[in-house]
Amino acid sequence: MLTPDDLDPGRLFAGFEKLSGLLIAVSGGPDSLALTRLAWRWRDAGAGVALHIATVDHGLRPDSRAEAEQVGRWARGLGLDHAILPWRGERPRTGVQEKARAARYALLFDHARAIGAEAVATAHHADDQWETILIRLARGSGISGLSGMARDQMFAGGRLVRPLLGLPKQALIDFCRREGQDFFDDPANSNPLFARARWRALGPALQGLGLTADRLTTFAGRARKAEEAIEAAARGFLAGAATLEPDVYDLRQNEGAPLAVFERFLALALARVAGAPPARLERLEALAKNLQMARQNGEILRATLGGCAARLDARGLLTLRREKARRRGLSVASASITGDFGGPLPD
Asked: What is the pTM of this model?
């Protein structure tokens, strides 16, 4: 049962008071409009953070431009500036939702940088978290993915915050109605062509079996604690294995490290060279396993992954270098289970 304190803007936005500016992504649905009104109250209560509103127009529906313009009128009614960010270029024939999601965050992060906003805020809520964890579980995600979406997270494009992550969707709908705030319903939310909509349709049955939002939130919190422990151990591994030469690591300094820690160390080390960890968890797992086996047998191993070329010599020194574009690929065996390492951008 929610209490008035659950919708207290000061509690929801706690920790974000020192942001130079906050760009709120608003689609016109009840979630993002509730976020807008709560942020507006938070600012006017003394937070002092500059608020900006943006709507990404994917151009995938005939009404999308008109809806974006209406969001602008609602925003200006609160005294907030609003920008429409159109997705330009040819539309993909397959994987539309995935490509639209990538385009949406690219446009939002680019706009945030242009206007001097330190973070982008989205209206992800507890129901979204429930769906995200189940989808990642079905994909065979690693512990990082199963920890769910974080309230405050850094991505390659910028900082993303989710102040409403602990609130159910119905609470946001009820809030908009109490405020007299109209909103749009996106037909894609119930379109069975999309995986998230199919999971949403299974919600009542799964929750009846005990897979409730509260329980999965508890699970995600416990997974995040395990994730933090692995991350801390991997960073210790990274520091202990570092040599005077950049991107050369002495694996003899961490003999017997758990495989999960070694995998995370490898992801961190690869990210230093390529700028981001490998996108496919199973390929990272395959490379980590092969490196450990080669190390145990005193063998030389060469492999490529995530834009990096790796070489392990017989002494146990691992050298990582940026791979030439024409040689991009993977030269170690990989499993068939897809997982998320570090978590993809959310819907």
From this structure: 0.83
